[in-house]
C-alpha cells in the first residue's frame, strides 16, 4: 500500500449547519419567561426582529418586553430583576 | 199410458248424464240437443236442475284425478333415463295435444250445459269454463315430475334458438359456414326451423286455449330469458367502464327480448301477462347489471374519473334494486383484499383511497357508503408509519396531482373534531336526512365533506400531525437534500396557511426565513472578506438556524479535523462581528461537503457529510485503522463510526480486512472515471430513535443480500439465526429481534428489494 497514492482534497462549497444564540447569562427573558433565542409574546420572528437589550445592571431582556415594562412604571424606571434604576447599556 | 214421474226423472237423468260425458258430446247433432233440452226441462220442473251442475263438476274432478291426470303424466314417465333431446320435445308436444283434445271434448259439454243454465250459481260465482282451468292447475299441475320440467325446458330452449336464428340477420361475412343450421342444428339442407316454429306457435296457442300457457311455460321462459340477459351483460358491459349502458339495456330488452315473449304470449288469454313479465325482467336486468358492476367495483373505483359512466349507472341501479348493502360489503372486502397488505406501497393505498372518495361521493352524496367501505383502509393507513409523509409528499410534489389540485381550491379544512353542530349549517329546505344505514356516531357534515384533503387529514383527525410532518419534510429538504426552491416553498406555504391556518405554520415560516437570512449573511461575509482581500481555506456556506423553530435535530458526537474546525471558528468570528451579542453553535455532523480523492491515479468526487469526509481523510496518513483507535481520534462512538464506514465500503474504498480493522482497497473499480455520489438520503438530519435504528438495521442488509445471493431463498428464522451467527458478533453491532427483523424485511418488500412467497424471502429480480 503506497500512502502517497491516496490524497484528500476539499472542493469549494461546504454547506455547514449551525444554530445561532444570544450571548446572555440566562436562557429565558425574566419578563416574559420565553427563551431569548425565541421571541417575545408580541413577536413572530426571532433574532433581528426581536433583539435583546442589556441594562447597566447587566440584566438583559427582549427589547419589547423591557420597553413595555418601563412604560408601565409610573414613578421610577427600575430593572424588574434587581430593582436598580434601569439604564440601557451603551 | 202415463209414465210415473220417477221414471221420467230417471230417463231425463240418463239423457243428461250420457250427453255430458266428454266422449259422447263429440258428435252433437240437433236431435241430441233437443233431447237434452227436454230432459233439462223435466229436471227443472222438479227443481232438480241444480244437481246437474254439482254432479258435472264432481265428475270432472274425478275424471281429472283418476283418468286424465295419470294419462297426461304417462307421457313423461317414459322419459326416465332418456337422453335424446328430441324424445323430450316430442313427448311434450304430444302431451299438449292430448290435453288440448280432452279440453275440447269437455268444452262441448260445458257449452251444452251453459246453453241451458246461463250462469252457474253453485259453489263459486265463476262460470264453468274458468272453473276447469282452476281444476287443471289444482289437480293436474299440482306437482310436476322432473322429466316434465326437463321437457318444457328443452322444448322452449330449442324454440328460442330457432326463433333467435330466424329473427337475426345472418352475418356470414368471411366466417366459415357450419354444415349445421344454427337454429334447429340439423344439416342446413334439411333445416326444420320453419316447422319447429309452426309447431311452436300451435303449441303455445293450444296451451293458451287450455288456459295453462303461463303456468306451463313461465318458469322455463323466464330462465331462458334470464340467461340471455346474463350472457348479454357479460359479453357487452363487463370491463368497459367508460360507457353508460343503462338506456341501451332497457332498449335492448324491449326490442330483442320482448319480441320472443310476444311471440309466445300472443294468445288472448295470456297477452295481458306480458307487461308484468316486462316489469319483472327489467328488474332482473338492472339487478344483473348492478351485480356485474359491483363485482368489478374495485377496478371501477380505481379507474375514476374515466369510469364515471359506470358509477352513474350503478347509482341509478341502486335506486331501482335492493343491492346497496351487498355493494357495501363487497367493495369493503375488495379494498381489504387488494390493498391492505405489506406488499402494497402506501402511496398506492392512498391514491386508491382518494379515488374511492371521489367516485363514491358521486355514487352516494350522503357519504355513507364511503364511510363504511373505507373504514378498514383508514384504520390501516393510520397504522402505517409513512402515511402522513406520503400525503404531505403528494401535496408538496412538483407538477400536479389530485391532491395538489384540491389544495389549490384553498378551502379551509372540515375536521371531525370541529364542534359546531351541523344543524347550523345550510338551508333547512335543502336538508336531507341521513340514510338509515348511516353510522349515527359521526356527523353528517363530516361525512358529506367533499374535500379530499379534509378526508385525508381526518384519517388522523388532527392538523398538527400534518403540519409537523410538513415541517419534517421541509427540514429534510433544507438540511439533507439541499434542494430547496425558496420561491416555490414560499408560495406553497401561503397555500398551506389558507388551509391549515396561520398559527399552525408559523414555525415553517421562520425556517424559510432562516434560509433566506443565511444566504444574506453568507454573501455579506464573503464581500467583507473580499474587501480586505481575504479568503477562507474552505469555502463555507452556512445554514444558520433559529433552533427553537426547527424540529429537534439529531445530535452526534464528533471532533472534526483541525483545518475544518479552524474554518468554522473563522466563520463564527465574522458572524459575531456582524450580529452583535450573538454567536453560533455548529452542528459538525450535519451539512454536506464536496471532496475529491486521488487514489492510485484515479480521481473520485464525492458529496458527503463532514463526518464521512473526516473519516476517509484519516486514511491519508494511515492506510489501516482499528475501529477503536479511529473512534478515539474522531471522538465518536464505535457504532456510529461503523455505520459511516459502511458508506465507504459500498463505494469500494475501504474493506474490513480482519474483524474491526479497515484498510484502503488497493484498486478502485471503474478506474479513470469521475464519479459523483451523494450520500444515501436516508440519513436524516432530525433526531429519531426509529431512524437511528433503521440505520443500524441497514448494516444487516448487506449481510442479508449476501445470504440471499448465495442461498437464493430463506425463511425468516434462518435469516435471523444466520445474522446472529455472522453479523451480531462484534461489540459494535447491535442485536435484532425476530419481530423487528420481520418489520425490516417487510419494508424491503415495499421498497421492492425483496419478494416474499410461500414462507421464504428472495431478492427481487
Ligand atoms: Zn421577553
Ligand atoms: Zn419582541
Ligand atoms: Zn438588573
Give the topology:
The complex is a heterodimer of chains A (90) and B (765).
Chain A lengths: L5 E17 L29 E3 L5 E3 H10 L18
Antiparallel strand pairs in A: 2-3
Chain B lengths: L4 H15 L10 H16 L3 H29 L7 H32 L11 H13 L5 H22 L25 H18 L2 H24 L9 H19 L8 H23 L1 H6 L5 H13 L3 H16 L6 H18 L4 H6 L1 H9 L3 H10 L5 H8 L34 H5 L3 H9 L2 H19 L4 H15 L5 H26 L8 E6 L16 H17 L3 E5 L5 E8 L2 E7 L1 H9 L5 E3 H8 L3 H13 L3 E5 L2 E4 L11 E3 L10 H23 L1 E2 L1 H12 L10 H13 L3 E4 L2 E4 L2
Parallel strand pairs in B: 4-8
Antiparallel strand pairs in B: 3-4, 5-7, 6-7, 9-11, 10-11
Helix pairs in contact in B: 1-2, 3-4, 3-5, 4-6, 4-7, 6-7, 6-8, 8-10, 9-10, 10-12, 12-14, 17-21, 21-23, 22-23, 25-27, 28-29
Bound molecules: zinc ion (3 copies).
Commentary on this structure:
Chain A is α+β, with helices and mostly antiparallel strands and 90 residues long. Chain A has one domain (22-90): Zinc/RING finger domain, C3HC4 (zinc finger) (Herpes Virus-1, 2-Layer Sandwich), CATH 3.30.40.10. Chain A has 1 helix and 3 strands, in the order βββα. In chain A, strands 2-3 form a two-stranded antiparallel ribbon. The model of chain A has no long low-confidence stretch (mean pLDDT 87). In chain B, strand 10 and strand 11 form a beta hairpin. Chain B is mainly alpha-helical and 765 residues long. The termini of chain B are far apart. The relative contact order of chain B is 0.04. In chain B, the strands form 3 sheets. In chain B, strands 3-4-8 form a 3-stranded mixed beta sheet. A 3-stranded antiparallel beta sheet of chain B has the order 5-7-6. Chain B has a 3-stranded antiparallel beta sheet with strand order 9-11-10. In chain B, helix 6 crosses helix 8 (213-236). Classes of the chains: A alpha+beta (90), B mainly alpha (765). Chains A and B meet through strand 1 of A and helix 23, strand 1, helix 24, strand 2 and strand 3 of B. Strand 1 (6-22) of chain A pairs antiparallel with strand 3 of chain B, so a sheet runs across the interface. The complex binds zinc ion (ZN) (3 copies). Residues 55, 57, 59, 79, 81-82, 84 of chain A line the site of one zinc ion (ZN). Chain A: InterPro entries: RING-box_E3_Ubiquitin_Ligase (IPR051031), RING-H2_APC11 (IPR024991), Znf_RING (IPR001841), Znf_RING/FYVE/PHD (IPR013083).
Amino acid at each position: 500500500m503506497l500512502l502517497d497514492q491516496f490524497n484528500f482534497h476539499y472542493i469549494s462549497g461546504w454547506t455547514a449547519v449551525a444554530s445561532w444564540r444570544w450571548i446572555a447569562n440566562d436562557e429565558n427573558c425574566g419578563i416574559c419567561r420565553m427563551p431569548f433565542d425565541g421571541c417575545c409574546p408580541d413577536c413572530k420572528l426571532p433574532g433581528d426582529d426581536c433583539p435583546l437589550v442589556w441594562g447597566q445592571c447587566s440584566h438583559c431582556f427582549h427589547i419589547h418586553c423591557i420597553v413595555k415594562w418601563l412604560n408601565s412604571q409610573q414613578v421610577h424606571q427600575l430593572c424588574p430583576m434587581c430593582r436598580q434604576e434601569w439604564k440601557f447599556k451603551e | 199410458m202415463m209414465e210415473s214421474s220417477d221414471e221420467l226423472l230417471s230417463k231425463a237423468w240418463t239423457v243428461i248424464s250420457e250427453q255430458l260425458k266428454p266422449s259422447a258430446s263429440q258428435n252433437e247433432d240437433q236431435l241430441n240437443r233437443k233431447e237434452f233440452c227436454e230432459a233439462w226441462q223435466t229436471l227443472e220442473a222438479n227443481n232438480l236442475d241444480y244437481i246437474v251442475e254439482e254432479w258435472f263438476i264432481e265428475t270432472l274432478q274425478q275424471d281429472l284425478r283418476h283418468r286424465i291426470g295419470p294419462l297426461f303424466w304417462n307421457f313423461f314417465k317414459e322419459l326416465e333415463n332418456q337422453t335424446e333431446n328430441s324424445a323430450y320435445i316430442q313427448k311434450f308436444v304430444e302431451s299438449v295435444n292430448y290435453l288440448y283434445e280432452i279440453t275440447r271434448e269437455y268444452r262441448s259439454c260445458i257449452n251444452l250445459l251453459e246453453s241451458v243454465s246461463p250462469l252457474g250459481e253453485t259453489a263459486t260465482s265463476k262460470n264453468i269454463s274458468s272453473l276447469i282451468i282452476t281444476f287443471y292447475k289444482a289437480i293436474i299441475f299440482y306437482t310436476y315430475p322432473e322429466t316434465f320440467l326437463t321437457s318444457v325446458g328443452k322444448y322452449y330452449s330449442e324454440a328460442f334458438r330457432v326463433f333467435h336464428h330466424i329473427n337475426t340477420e345472418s352475418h356470414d361475412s368471411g366466417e366459415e359456414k357450419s354444415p349445421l343450421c344454427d337454429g334447429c342444428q340439423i344439416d342446413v339442407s334439411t333445416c326444420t326451423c320453419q316447422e319447429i316454429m309452426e309447431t311452436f306457435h300451435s303449441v303455445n296457442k293450444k296451451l293458451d286455449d287450455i288456459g295453462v300457457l303461463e303456468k306451463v311455460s313461465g318458469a322455463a321462459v323466464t330462465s331462458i330469458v334470464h340467461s340471455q340477459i346474463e350472457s348479454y351483460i357479460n359479453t357487452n358491459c363487463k370491463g368497459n367502464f367508460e360507457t353508460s349502458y343503462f338506456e341501451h339495456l332497457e332498449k335492448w330488452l324491449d326490442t330483442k327480448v320482448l319480441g320472443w315473449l310476444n311471440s309466445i304470449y300472443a294468445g288472448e288469454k295470456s297477452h295481458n301477462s306480458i307487461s308484468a313479465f316486462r316489469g319483472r325482467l327489467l328488474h332482473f336486468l338492472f339487478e344483473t347489471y348492478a351485480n356485474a358492476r359491483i363485482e368489478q367495483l374495485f377496478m371501477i373505483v380505481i379507474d375514476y374519473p374515466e369510469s364515471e359512466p359506470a358509477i352513474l349507472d350503478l347509482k341509478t341501479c341502486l335506486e331501482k334494486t335492493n343491492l346497496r348493502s351487498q355493494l357495501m360489503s363487497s367493495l369493503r372486502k375488495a379494498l381489504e383484499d387488494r390493498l391492505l397488505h405489506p406488499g402494497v406501497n402506501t402511496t398506492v393505498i392512498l391514491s386508491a383511497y382518494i379515488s374511492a372518495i371521489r367516485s363514491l361521493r358521486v355514487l352516494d352524496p350522503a357519504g355513507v357508503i364511503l364511510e363504511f367501505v373505507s373504514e378498514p383502509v383508514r384504520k390501516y393507513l393510520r397504522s402505517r408509519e409513512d402515511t402522513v409523509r406520503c400525503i404531505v409528499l403528494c401535496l408538496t410534489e412538483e407538477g400536479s396531482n389530485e391532491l395538489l389540485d384540491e389544495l389549490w381550491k384553498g378551502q379551509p379544512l372540515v375536521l371531525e373534531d370541529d364542534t359546531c353542530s351541523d344543524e347550523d349549517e345550510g338551508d333547512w329546505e335543502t336538508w336531507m336526512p341521513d340514510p338509515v344505514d348511516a353510522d349515527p356516531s359521526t356527523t353528517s357534515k363530516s361525512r358529506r365533506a367533499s374535500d379530499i384533503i379534509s378526508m385525508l387529514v381526518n384519517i388522523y383527525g388532527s392538523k398538527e400531525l400534518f403540519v409537523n410532518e410538513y415541517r419534517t419534510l421541509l427540514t429534510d429538504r433544507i438540511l439533507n437534500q439541499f434542494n430547496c426552491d425558496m420561491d416555490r416553498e414560499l408560495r406553497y406555504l401561503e397555500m398551506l396557511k389558507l388551509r391549515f391556518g396561520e398559527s399552525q405554520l408559523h414555525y415553517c415560516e421562520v425556517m424559510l426565513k432562516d434560509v433566506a437570512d443565511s444566504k444574506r449573511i453568507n454573501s455579506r461575509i464573503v464581500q467583507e472578506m473580499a474587501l480586505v482581500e481575504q479568503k477562507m481555506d474552505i469555502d463555507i456556506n452556512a445554514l444558520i438556524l433559529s433552533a427553537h423553530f426547527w424540529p429537534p435535530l439529531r445530535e452526534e458526537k464528533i471532533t472534526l479535523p483541525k483545518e475544518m474546525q479552524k474554518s468554522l471558528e473563522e466563520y463564527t468570528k465574522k458572524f459575531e462581528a456582524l450580529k452583535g451579542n450573538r454567536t453560533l453553535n455548529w452542528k459538525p455532523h450535519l451539512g454536506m461537503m464536496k471532496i475529491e480523492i486521488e487514489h492510485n491515479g484515479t480521481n473520485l468526487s464525492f458529496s458527503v457529510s463532514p463526518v464521512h469526509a473526516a473519516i476517509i481523510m484519516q486514511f491519508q496518513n494511515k492506510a489501516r485503522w482499528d475501529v477503536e483507535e479511529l473512534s478515539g481520534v474522531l471522538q465518536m462512538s464505535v457504532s456510529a463510526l461503523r455505520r459511516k464506514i459502511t458508506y465507504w465500503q459500498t463505494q469500494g474504498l475501504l474493506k474490513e480486512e480482519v474483524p474491526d480493522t479497515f484498510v484502503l482497497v488497493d484498486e478502485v473499480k471503474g478506474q479513470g472515471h469521475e464519479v459523483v455520489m451523494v450520500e444515501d438520503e436516508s440519513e436524516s438530519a432530525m433526531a429519531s430513535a426509529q431512524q437511528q435504528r433503521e440505520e443500524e438495521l441497514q448494516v444487516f442488509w448487506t449481510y442479508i443480500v449476501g445470504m440471499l445471493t448465495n442461498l437464493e431463498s430463506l425463511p425468516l428464522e434462518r435469516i435471523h439465526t444466520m445474522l446472529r451467527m455472522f453479523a451480531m458478533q462484534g461489540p459494535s453491532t447491535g442485536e435484532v429481534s425476530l419481530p423487528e427483523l420481520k418489520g425490516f424485511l417487510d419494508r424491503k418488500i415495499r421498497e421492492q428489494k425483496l419478494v416474499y412467497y410461500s414462507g421464504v424471502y428472495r431478492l427481487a429480480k
